[in-house]
Amino acid sequence: MKTIRHVDELVRTLQAHRAEGRSIGWVGTSGALHDGHLSLVRQAKAGNDIALMTWTGSMSFPWAGSSNPSYGRNEDRDAALASGAGLDLLYIPIGAEIYPQPPHTRVTTPAMHRDGLTEPHHLDMVALFMTKFLSLSGTCSCYMGEKDWQQLVMMRSVISDLSLPVDRLVVVPTARDSDGVPLSSRNTKLTPEQRAAAVVVPNALRAAARAVEAGERDPGRVLDIVTRIIAPVAPLVYAQVLSETLQELDVLQGAIRILAAARFGGTEILDNIGLNV
User: Of 29, 30, 59, 177, which sits with the fewest C-beta atoms within 10 Å of its C-beta?
Assistant: First the structure.
């Protein structure tokens, strides 16, 4: 595995691979890798000649506010895990090269903003950073997981609307622990008791999905199932039943997503499940 830290080296390296006819699979992460991230790496490598990861765990931009992507991640640990999963290129950008001054440009997708889901400013910051790094990386296949469904739908729209150099957006199923809780860097912040309680989120979604499969078509009743299961265990942050493209539905039909998040201490655990009705 080769580690790259400068933009010009990234561009030269990728241009050289493409000149030899090699395809690129791109994975983005803010660090604290777990098997969910590594499943993206493995699929990027299986589907392409070169697997590239953009790792932003060391960047810090005060102007990003609460969405400041500085996480204090362990670079050496993550590099070892990524290499073991088959990663070829690890790009660790230097913040001063990426944005030497606060950007004047915003990437915002109001149609993807939904009350109760991801805070709009944070969603816009995700769109800005991913647009930047996909543009720098050039023609590639982009690999994203289902867990952050709103961000995935948003980036599908951004890639299309801005004609970013992405040949295809590959959606990878959410990686889960043995009890069904989605793998997340947030899980490390939970106490053992909170981690055990977090199973209520996927359990509630599965119960709601069973009701839909049994014939329930009223979104309100489906949301009531999620609320009744989660609320006695943890504060509910949100529960939504939307179309796969995040549109509101009066009657459940077609491809839908049931989304929920709950707070355990100071940590939010989010999950979603998809169904074809």
Answer: 177
Q: Measured between alpha carbons, how far is 209 from 263 in angstroms, rounded to an integer? A: 21
Q: What tokens appear for 38 in the block? A: 């590594």
Instruction: Report how far apart, in Å, the C-alpha atoms of 92 and of each of 43, 81, 117, 146 are.
Output: 20, 15, 29, 24
Marked catalytic residue, from 6, 17, 34, 37 = 37
79 closest CA partner among 87, 70, 71, 67 = 87
Tokens of 208: 């709601």
Mean pLDDT, contiguous 10-residue spans, the chain (277 residues): 98 98 97 94 98 92 72 85 98 95 95 87 94 98 96 97 97 96 92 98 98 98 98 97 96 98 95 97
Q: At what angle do helices 200-213 and 219-230 cross, to 10 degrees?
A: 150
User: Does residue 37 carry a catalytic annotation?
Assistant: yes
Tokens, residue 81: 């895990």
Strand pairing partners for 55? Answer: 29
Query: How far is the C-alpha of 158 from the C-alpha of 212, rounded, in Å?
Result: 31
Q: Express each pLDDT in 238-258 by its tens digit.
A: 999 999 999 999 999 999 999
pLDDT digits (tens, 9 = 90+) for 66-75: 666 555 578 9
Distances (CA, A) of 85 to 31, 32, 57, 221: 15, 15, 19, 42
Nearest to 134 by CA among 14, 23, 26, 15: 26
State the pairing for strand pair 2-4/50-55.
Answer: unpaired
Alpha helices in 65-218 (DSSP H): 75-84, 95-98, 120-137, 149-161, 192-197, 200-213
